[in-house]
Write a structure and sequence with these properties.
- With about 700 residues, this protein is α/β, with parallel strands linked by helices.
- The protein folds into four domains: about 40 residues, no CATH class; about 250 residues, Spore Coat Polysaccharide Biosynthesis Protein SpsA, Chain A (Alpha-Beta Complex), CATH 3.90.550; about 170 residues, Rossmann fold (3-Layer(aba) Sandwich), CATH 3.40.50; about 170 residues, Rossmann fold.
- The chain has 28 helices and 27 strands.
- Strands 2, 3, 5, 6, 7, 8, 9, 12, 13 and 14 form a ten-stranded mixed beta sheet that branches. A seven-stranded parallel beta sheet has the order 17-16-15-18-19-20-21, with helices on both faces. It has a six-stranded parallel beta sheet with strand order 24-23-22-25-26-27, sandwiched between helices.
- Strand 8 and strand 9 form a beta hairpin.
- Helix 2 runs antiparallel to helix 3, helix 16 packs antiparallel against helix 17 and helix 21 packs across helix 26.
Amino acid sequence: MVGFFSAVRSIDRYKWEKFLLYCRTEGVGSVLKRIQNYFLRYGVVPLNDLDTSMPRKGEPYDQLVLPEEPEPLVSIVLPVYNKWPYTYHCLRQILKNTTDVPYEVILADDVSTDETKDAARYVKNLVVSRNTENLGFLRNCNRAVKLARGRYVHFLNNDTNVQKGWLSSLVRLLEAQPDIGMAGSKLVYANGRLQEAGGILWRDGSAWNYGHIDDRDGAAARYVKDVDYISGASMMIRRTLWEKLGGFDERYAPAYCEDSDLAFMTRQAGFRVVYQPLSVVVHFEGISNGTHLSSGIKRYQPINQRKFFEKWQAVLAKEHFPNGQDVFWARDRSYGRKTIVVVDHYVPHYDCDAGGRTTFHYLNFFVQLGLHVIFVGDNYFCHQPYTMELEQLGIEVLAGDGWSFGRFRKWLDTYGRYVDFVYLNRPHIAIKYIDLVRERTQARIFYYGHDLHFIREQRQYEVEHKPELLKSIAHWKRIECDLVRKADVVHTPGAYEEQVLQAMFPGKPIHAIPIYLYERSALDCMERPVPDGRDSLIFVGGFNHQPNEDAVHWFMADIYPELLRLRPGLRLFIVGSHPTKAVQALASDLVTVTGYVSDEALAGYYQQARVAVVPLRYGAGIKGKIVESMYFGLPVVTTTIGAEGLPNVDSCIAVTDDPSVYVQRVWELLTKDTIWEQHSAREMAYVRENFTTDRAKEILLQDLK
């Protein structure tokens, strides 16, 4: 059995989750779930990404060499009183797992009598603040911080085991968001269970460690969120703010409630207090001060709770809930913000297809609007790094082990009363959820189809004349019309779909929204591209989408050979994820089929190409590849279908369905710099006018009401 547990410990986390997903698909997931729960209950964690090592009796104290930093970004303050084995182990883990942030460690020694007094002999470059009398935790910290040189001060208990990325993830938050004053870690027990994912303070001054004993990787513990307080076991604060506040309030000396009080003072000063789930710290709770409230320093906990309540009674009465009530709002301080649940087929793969990029843009935009955002992917899988990126934006993603459609139904039964808006994407997904959310919530329901499937397939039938498409057209028309009738508001990607649906459903709120969102200020700062040095063509599109494959084959058969006759050696880059074997077979000395590329690499292709070709013969909705090309100021040649839904776009891009004219338009842009520059300038102006967050805000604020 021990050997079996050891084998399970070695399972890679991603592979384990993928295995669970497969088992759920095959109908045996409940068995695997029970096995995993058994492991967790008895401290055998089937994940290998958590270091829970503890000091071992008799282990040697080899010398540790901390980095010598002339300008540390973070000053780590380690308050200690004896317990040298834990302190040494903590320092060793800091050294091991803190490689991407310049830091210093200040050992705040409160007159220890064990090996701690010789710490500098064991640890080189350690800053030691040693008291002449025992000051207690609070005053010991206040005194030690006076030696800090970092921009940020991080308080860390010595009975902790920090994990990789624990410090840099906190720094990134505070560097990126100046309104955050304090940030804290996810605290985990040595058995792998969650100790705390931020703290809640109730109206009576009592506190909860949110998520206590839950799954440390559960959805509610994975996203960045505002919290009432951060545990002092691992807590970062801006040094300038610390000095402004005067440090820990000494009314709480010697210890307890000073961390909660500091969080309240931080908010009172106009800053936020935030939980960072990527900062993971194992906490061997009770090592420093014990666990009994009747003895030792722990006896000050109830005394200081009364002091805390007296100091902040007015704030608690105004901003906090009665004990145990409205945990949904209390856990992330979301009361007063509207909650929107966004549903799509899976976590948006924004760098793989236009639909995913659109969903990602709007999720980010909903956060910017101040909404409390929750995302549901219909496959309930934590695709990475996409899930983590949403969670770092402050979005809770209901996915991962144990999540399913049935569990989401139960989630709505419990929390549906808190949901104000539901935003459903894609007809085949939305049709599963629209009746469910109507029955279990009072939410305003939005439907966004990304395109009209029945029109796209009608156009495919007109090109291919396959009889089976007629049945598919009727199927999608029935579903899409049903969704439009049931939704409160319908969004479309372009003006064409908006007009079609308004004619079919007069009086229904139907509005076209920008598919991509750019900041106007960023667009205004973009440099005007030049044609010099550009000598290739580019086609961009994911090949999970049938119209893209048809377009490439048509271009290669009817257009590219003529262009090669005019310019032998003209290169073509076919860029996009999931190329089929037929598309891959198009590769040659002149044609490069890249497959998936990162956003950075894609930008490089756009900046090197001379012309973007978008030869779509069927499809529906606004084409992201055209908007993206215009954003980069890269002249586009497309078809009527490609330009559809973009009002007056033919004033800045070339539009034709005739292969011979298509060749002429590409050739003009390849050979005439003046025409190229005119198209480029008009395209960038078009994007500034139609695809900004300001434009989206006009529409959404009206629809969200």
